[in-house]
Design goal:
Layout: H1 16-35, H2 40-47, H3 51-57, H4 61-83, H5 86-92, H6 94-111, H7 113-123, H8 127-153, H9 162-174, H10 179-183, H11 185-200
Length: 205
């Protein structure tokens, strides 16, 4: 299987090439987490393969960053599905659900901080990373929009243009990776969920 935007060698799912690619992804993530950067040579040595093998899977460093971001985005999608859902909203209530969403995003930002910082430094110069980022933003917006629409239908989120409510919510949560949030943990723990809850809650009867 060939990953979009890369020049990876075709491989069967679970085949040797696929296993090598996953190993290189993991080693690249580990090196970035430790040093904030990476080279094909260092990752290949960590993985116990040749540098040529690294570049057979990832034609450029941007292709390797793209592959690592795909791991991050898959993890984001899986974790967010558990909390950004109508089931969680109905079971736990709006503010608790928003707190779970904020906590999930904050933890992922922390776990992948070095990778996200490296990707941001490259994004303006890389069509590949820019396209990947836009695609992920659209996917995340669509997931939040569905959450808002279902919450409105259930009477747990106030009436209003769901796209505007979604855009506001996404603007707030996308700021959770800022230095200000990291320097003041209570903002993410208490203030942001409470702020969003007041914004999204239906008026009291």
């Amino acid at each position: 299987m060939v990953t979009s935007g890369s020049t990876d060698v075709p491989s069967r799912p679970g085949g040797k090439a696929a296993r090598t690619r996953r190993l290189l992804q993991r080693c690249t993530l580990d090196v970035i987490a430790e040093t904030g950067e990476f080279t094909g040579e260092v990752v290949a040595e960590r993985a116990g393969v040749s540098t040529a093998t690294f570049y057979a899977h990832f034609a450029t460093k941007d292709h390797a960053i793209e592959a690592c971001l795909a791991v991050c985005f898959e993890e984001y999608e899986e974790r967010m599905r558990r909390v950004e859902s109508i089931e969680h909203l109905l079971d736990a209530g709006l503010e608790a659900t928003l707190a779970a969403i904020v906590t999930t995003i904050t933890r992922l930002n922390e776990e992948y901080r070095a990778l996200l910082r490296l990707a941001r430094a490259r994004i303006q110069a890389s069509h590949l990373l820019r396209d990947q980022s836009r695609s992920e933003e659209h996917r995340a917006f669509a997931a939040t929009l569905r959450f808002v629409q279902l919450g409105q239908a259930a009477g747990r989120i106030r009436a209003g243009d769901p796209e505007v409510l979604t855009a506001t919510m996404r603007t707030v949560v996308e700021g959770l990776d800022s230095w200000t949030i990291r320097a003041h943990p209570g903002v993410a723990e208490r203030e942001v969920p409470e702020l969003l809850s007041r914004y999204l809650s239906p008026p009291a009867p």
